[in-house]
Design goal:
- The protein is of the alpha/beta class.
- The protein has a single domain, classed as 3-Layer(aba) Sandwich (Rossmann fold).
- Helices cover 49% and strands 13% of the residues.
- It has a seven-stranded parallel beta sheet with strand order 3-2-1-4-5-6-7, with helices on both faces.
- Helix 1 packs across helix 7, helix 3 packs parallel to helix 4 and helix 4 packs parallel to helix 5.
- The longest helix is centred in the middle third of the chain and has 29 residues.
- The chain is globular and about 55 Å long.
Length: 267
């Protein structure tokens, strides 16, 4: 899909990768719908984008994606306003780091609701109109964490494994419909995500510096992959190589390696 003159909806658009998607699409899109919980940040983003691009229409919608009623209200608002989305970027996500046995049950529920349930609902809601117009694209932001079970990120990695698997199956279903699906699987990116995911009194997880990719590059690579109709994009050479090796490694070896991770968590 060519994204010029598209009408894009971006979840998690108030910060990080989502806000960068809005910034990079602003010069090309016809309209943007920015969705997040922080209305003040959404307003700031809209004001900045419309100053830079006076012809751009920017809608903002304060929505807690962990609240299913709020997600339904978002969909009803789109229908009422007759906003026809042809680029859906399911970017919003929640994380958590630490042993599952000491995790917050409410946080686990919120992760599942945002990372899985809301993403699935919005995709199901907006997909039929894309198919009817034979034009559209869905970009699901997964994670490299979804390629394997990760001790210390058990629920988060599992939700992202769902996103990657769901996206691949959906892409196969939509072949020849004019609607494309791409999965973005970034590694570590310097955003607020790590700070929010860490537990009180702990340092945020980051990974070695050489695997970090600037948020600008992550979004550029994702949009380029979407336009090239590629099924999956892993930004950064180091992460591409690392994830290739992970995906080729037999599970018994991965289980053996995970013992060292479990030892770290128990310390």
């Amino acid at each position: 899909m060519k994204i010029d003159h598209c009408n894009a909806l971006i979840t998690g658009a108030s910060s990080g990768i989502g806000r960068e998607f809005a910034q990079q699409l602003a010069g090309r899109a016809q309209s943007l719908v920015l969705v997040a919980r922080n209305e003040e940040r959404l307003s700031e983003a809209r004001n900045k984008l419309t100053r830079q691009h006076p012809s751009l229409t920017v809608h903002i919608r304060k929505t807690d994606l962990a609240n299913h009623s709020a997600v339904e209200e978002l969909n009803a608002w789109l229908e009422h306003e007759k906003i026809h989305v042809d680029l859906l970027i399911n970017n919003a996500g929640l994380g958590d780091s630490g042993a599952f046995a000491t995790s917050d049950p409410r946080r686990n529920e919120q992760m599942t609701l945002v990372n899985v349930v809301a993403l699935t609902f919005l995709t199901r809601s907006l997909l039929p109109q894309m198919i009817a117009r034979k034009r559209g694209a869905i970009l699901n932001v997964s994670s490299s964490a979804g390629f394997l079970p990760i001790p210390g990120f058990a629920v988060y990695a599992a939700t992202k494994a769902y996103v990657t698997s769901f996206s691949e199956a959906l892409r196969a279903e939509l072949r020849e419909t004019g609607v494309s699906v791409c999965t973005l699987c970034p590694g570590p990116v310097h955003t607020e995500f790590q700070e929010v995911a860490k537990r009180p009194g702990e340092q945020p997880e980051g990974g070695p510096g050489f695997v970090h990719v600037p948020v600008e590059q992550v979004v550029r690579d994702a949009l380029a992959a979407l336009e090239a109709d590629r099924p999956l994009v892993i930004p950064g050479f180091a992460m591409k190589v690392g994830m290739l090796l992970v995906r080729l490694t037999p599970m018994p070896i991965l289980r053996w390696a995970s013992r060292f991770r479990r030892n770290e968590i128990s310390l």
